[in-house]
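Anyone else keep sequences and structure tokens together like this?

Example one:
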Amino acid sequence: MAFLVVVTGLDRAAAKAIAQAIDQIQQTQESLERSPTRAVAATVTTPKRSPVAATSYEGWVARRRQEANAMALRRPARLAVLVGDSLTLAFPSRLLPAGTTWLNQGISGDTTRLLLQRLDGLARLQPEVIFVAIGINDLMQGVSDDTIVENHRAITQELRRAHPNSRIVLQSLFPHRGASSTWEGRARLRQATLDRIKRINRRLNQVARDERVGFLDLFPMFTDPQGNLHPDLTTDGLHLSDRGYLVWRAALDSFLQLSRSGAAGLTVTPRPAEENRAGAQRLTDSDNRSVATPSDRPSPTPKASPADRKPPSSSAAPANRPAELPDRARSTNRREAPATTDDQRP
């Protein structure tokens, strides 16, 4: 799997960082192809397995909280946190980018509402970056687009409040293969049409701009020519294969390298390529269709007229509890509950 990279408007440090990231990704891919069972893509440190039983959603929440607290005591210099559902949970540690300590806080069956309620479990951490990937379970449970988007906004606001020195990165929803999926819960994917996912992703991009955080649009990096999840990147039409996680790794690695190089105004944009549709990637500094924008840096704010001024947001919550959801989100999600078995939920 090759990566096509076009670099414009970069200083030498940024260009060098990008080149190193691409080299690492390609070396990992070659190693995986030679020996999938022995390839090691990253040197990562993770806390010991928690003794808390994770046989229920509550058990998983307790385990994740213990792991986060253990990591907080160690205070690693470059800590990246992944939060999300089973797509995040299943990310192989050997395929995560090197040079970073990774803490996986994914839980199978998680939704935007449930994730918002457990964000206080990260309170003691001081991460460099927090990557958020959540929402497919909301769609399959009948949650409205508006609620999904506003819950993402509330998650973003709570993370920014609790972690003012961390970069927050929203990630788009992934595509799937719909009726072609072999996943046993594929009937529920009818509610998560690809057009609907793309509409939500556009709105999430706007949320990221509004809240001055990063946005990583993974959707076009994972599609085949028909717009479905590429068959080479999935195990069952919904969950990802090792090759799928390599593509995700490329996006994460590029974002980290760019942000550390100081090229905070750049974007990472996937570029369609006939020779390798899923793996091609383009870096540019001026494309308005921004994909990964570490945009939480200070920037001048124009003065607004009295008519344009908006009342301050009330989404931020005290430190000891997660942000409250908008009324619309609370009413829509009131009946929502996690699925009962791990094999029936992403």
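And example two:
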Amino acid sequence: MRPEDEAVVGGARRRRGSARPRGATADGTAPRPRTGPPSPRRPKDPSLRRSVALFRAFMGEQSDPESCYALLARDAVDQVERYVGELAGRVVVDVGGGSGYFTEEFRRRGAEAFLFEPDPAELGDRPPDGAVVADGYLLPLADGVADITFTSNVLEHVADPQTFLSELARVTRPGGLIYVSFTNWLSPWGGHEWAPWHYFGAERARARYRRRAGKPAKHTLGENLFAVHIGPTLRQVRARDDVTVVAARSRYWPFLTEWIVRIPVLREFATWNLLLILRRCPT
């Protein structure tokens, strides 16, 4: 991005080369992520060791959310670095990043990372410096300000994925990278907290969750969770003229990550979580 490009952050304009926003976040349940020295290299992606580590972290999400989300953030940013190299000085827009784990990891590696989150409750009572409450359909950013636009596990929570993707492309500079990961509906985790009972119907699964947990489920199908499928999503993305598909693969699998995505029907169940790496086309 050129020096004259600007990004609107927190109601003020920041120019490239200005001091990076710093801060940490909390979301009411998860401890505050902290800025520290650069993270060590993670296990190779893909590898069985990496997948086992992520699975163990997911299993401990309720008891140790900080470790879970910090590991997921390091892993995701490692994936981004595979495609762009060094992150120092790059402008990263994190859309729907919740309490800021991904934003903080990008900042640890020298990026100018900014968080845009539509739900104030997800930011918690101590929002990170530079965080903006903003709708992902209409980001308060000029065209092409981001070197990297990042969104993790958000697409299944928006009613209009194609409009959401259009906005991600709009704020990404020509040649810039767009990272999109989402949990597809027919994966074992498609129903989120009421999975895998979503295979027997969303309302039945929600009712079961309430009986067992003693509280309503966070997600409601058709309100804040949507049945997004891999096949239609891939066809729609490949038909776009503003992005090209660099990679389409399973995010967490230890092997055959791209092969699984090529098999209709099987991919809807076995991919678990689809990772799309997109490149913004020249204008």
